[in-house]
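Internal tracking record. Fields below are filled automatically when a chain is submitted to the structure queue. Please do not edit lines marked as system-generated. If the sequence contains nonstandard residues, flag them in the REMARKS field before resubmitting.
Queue: standard
Priority: normal
Entity type: single polypeptide chain
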Amino acid sequence: MTMHAPALRRLLLGAIAAFAVACMPAAPAAAQSQTVNVYNWNDYIDPEVLERFTRETGIAVRYDVFDSLETLEAKLLAGRSGYDIVVPTNEPSFSRLIAAGALQPLDRAKIPNWGNLDATLMQRLDASDQGNRHGVIYLWGTIGLGINAARIREVAPDAPLDSWDLLFKPEHASRIARCGIVMMDSQIDVLPTVLRYLGIDPNSTAEADLRRVEQTLMAIRPHIRTFSTGGAIELLATGQACLAFAYSGDAIQAADRAKEAGQGVEVRYVAPKEGAQLWFDVLAIPRDAPNRDNAHRLINFLLQPEVMAAITNEVHYPNAVPASKPGIDPDILADRNVYPAEEDFARFFTVRAVPQAAERARSRMWARFKAGR
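SYSTEM-GENERATED OUTPUT FOLLOWS
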């Protein structure tokens, strides 16, 4: 069986880390180990970047992945996660972890490449982390729809491809279900979008607004094939699904994999006209990280322009290091789904953490939605 490059790189990631660890001499018990333990989103790094870091520093990278903010928060809030770097999304997870004391302030003196960051984007992050004390932007993007337009046109020729109506109106979803609908498995990401779609403040905690969200979602529940976050990439790329509520980069990765496979599947990303959530994924260090110096070294390494360019070229998410742009594939830079134009930002919105009681109510509603009752 032929293995395409992205799949091969994902397999190599674990091998790289394992080999590096095996080659490291044992460290004294009192000192930090010659490793750095990373907890990142799935399909969200160029493995060659990690290999280069180990080669240049002698520090091995142990790399684990998650596919939802709920999973990340549960691990961090429980304490003693063993991770040195985590990658939460700015809202609500990053700000909530800061408030809980789960993250430590960064030592800028150990991150000289801090100056490479886009000041405007970091200012946007300030709303979640006053003074930018606890994290730096790794990658960013929007949340929208991954679509196989040809398949959708076959089953729902009149459905609007540029609107959330494509998913949230039952008359469209019922027909599109024949070629497969994937819902992101994260109420943290989905509910604010539904609120915005309904013309409600995405940060609303009103019970009446939550009921409207539940009614909207329950109306399409029979038409959802599966709940998955990172798994949407393969489902779209292989033609097993034609519509997915997805992160922008995941849909764009799916488009690339479909093209590489050469099976006639065409996928593209849409930031719907009613609005798309803008988010930032942040490099942060847990309060109880066992290898803090190594974590700072890896963050500083990642903020090099050529390193961030390699990551963006691999995963097709924009980064926050402007000097990386000369090293980024021109087709990626020209794609407004990856690097939105200034006027596109008028349609984007951001969210903030909601009070704990409201979060519990949202979680209960999400559980009912997934269960279909």
